[in-house]
Design a protein that fits this description.
The protein has 106 residues and is an alpha+beta fold. It contains 2 helices and 4 strands; from the N terminus they run βαββαβ. It has helices at residues 31-49, 76-92, and strands spanning 15-25, 52-57, 64-73, 96-105. A 4-stranded antiparallel beta sheet has the order 2-3-1-4, with helices on one face. A hairpin with a 6-residue loop joins β2 (52-57) and β3 (64-73).
């Protein structure tokens, strides 16, 4: 092992998957209702994927939510797989509609 990038122990580079999620929470009648949904998503994504999640937009709107999600992945293939799974479970949540998801892998 040479200790040079691209060789030996440095040959594998981790990837960061980032998602920006905007969704409409139709059943929400208050900020408290919306934040309950957000907290459930934060807990699930942290538990299942080790993701960091923050509310990064629409903090004072009771129907719209904006989430930022970041997770570290061993490689780009795993990053794509996790993004697809997260998108799938978001679309399956009947509380959310008008989903807009932007993804980027670094």
């Amino acid at each position: 092992r040479t200790g040079q990038p691209g060789k030996g122990i440095f040959a594998k580079i981790m990837r960061i998957a980032a998602l920006s999620i905007t969704a409409y929470v139709a059943e929400s009648n208050s900020l408290k209702d919306k934040r309950s949904v957000i907290k459930q998503w934060q807990a699930r994504l942290k538990r299942d994927y080790g993701a960091s999640v923050c509310e990064d937009d629409y903090q004072n709107h009771r129907k719209w939510m904006g989430l930022g999600v970041a997770l570290a992945c061993a490689d780009e293939t795993i990053a794509h797989q996790r993004i697809q799974k997260i998108e799938q479970i978001l679309y399956e949540d009947e509380r959310l509609s008008r989903l807009d998801i932007v993804e980027k892998i670094y």
